[in-house]
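Researcher: Good morning. I'm working through a list of sequences from a screen, and I'd like to move beyond sequence-only analysis. For each chain I'm collecting a predicted structure so we can compare shapes side by side. This is the next one on the list. No need for commentary yet; just the structure.
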Amino acid sequence: MGDSMKTQLVSAICLQEVELHERPAEDKQGGENNNNDKTFTVEEAVEEIGFGRFHVMLFVIMGSSNIVEAMEIMLLAVVSPEIRCEWRLDDWQVALVSTMVFLGFMLCGVLGGYIADRYGRWKVVFGGFVWSAYFSLLTSFAPSYGWFIFLRGMVGCGVAGVSQGFVLKTEFIPAKYRAILLPLATIFWMMGSMLIIILGMLVVPTLGWRWMIRISVTPSIILIFLFKFIPESARYNVSAGKTEAAMKTLHWIAKMNRASLPPGRLVEPITNERGSWRILLGPSFRRTSLLLWYSWFVASFTYYGSVLSSSELLEKNLLCVTNADKEHQVKHRHADGLCYCIPFGYSDYQTLLISCLGEVALVPANIALLNVFGRKMSLTVLQLLAAFFFMMLNICSTMFGFTVLLFLLRSLVSMNFNVVYIYTAEVYPTVARSLGMGFCTSFSRIGGMIAPFIAQVLMSQSVILALSPFAVACVVCALGNFLLPIETKGRALLQNS
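Model: Good morning. Structure tokens for this chain:
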């Protein structure tokens, strides 16, 4: 009996030891099973990775795309006096140059958004760089006015593709950093605007406007090579069923940021209805889309109206200033009536440069507005202030006073454009984000097409009649922005509608 009890006791001890040895392996296997059961979305992965070295690179390279876009658009303000002189153009013909660029942008904006939602953002942005650089270079060899406006229209198509870079950039940035990083991108737009004005100041008087355009293509060519460091949007990849490609991108970003992904596996539903206009006009987004289309129209109408009005007021001596220099006072007085050759002087370039600085001067205020009041209220306030300063330009003042007013006006319309970009990228779901942006940018170009005929043609008849439409449009838009149904401040980017 004693031997039997000893045998049972030894057996129990041995069994306990075996269980202790096996349990860690079982626990480990159970932990692996638990991790396999866990899932995460791209939104959760982006938030977990946080801000790091990848986002600095993204900010610099994608922000530089704004330099290209700004140079192509602002080039119109600088080159207008030169082509007016070379081809002896009337006011409406000069205005048609800007209109053709925006027409190309409008026609290709929706198409670019559809392709970006169906086949990827990266392809559209890269194609836009190549397209705009090629046709911009061809513009410098234009033998006639007809060829010039046709080629500038082709440039507008390329710029429409480049503008999709904003969507690509937004989809990689964590929610709490979007209201800071996206407004800061205005710095790159200002750099592009200033760069083309400085090129005009240095190159046009010596080598002419054609060489200015050829040199201005350089940033596009550089970005074509740098763009290989930017991956395709992980949000697009998962919506298209390319989960493995999305995971590869997220792992690479996490490695660059020295962070880790959430435990588990990436799971997102595949959406076949990508790039469908029905999403934009469905019950969830119909009111938002209609109000946003008008808001984009006004944003472009007032921005390019302020840019072209400033160059027109300076070029044609329409300013009611009390201390203008002698050269400014006499440069548009000719006994025989029309004068085609009215090139910018050094002081005119200087005024345009100072007004460009206004686009970043109030960036801290822009960030504060976005974080404190949200997107909707920021849009409303900015539009009302812009309307006020448009009417202030009618007041007779010194050249210094005009420069200050122009500085503040450019700040406000630039901030408004920036906020409407951010709101649009945040409010639409991934499956229709690029198409939504494409529709909005197309409507904005309608505003850009109309602005030259108000700012460059009507301005010669009456300054107050030319500035009033911009102010009225801002007031109406402010009311519309207040009625937007969705506030996106602090909200995660939607994947599906």
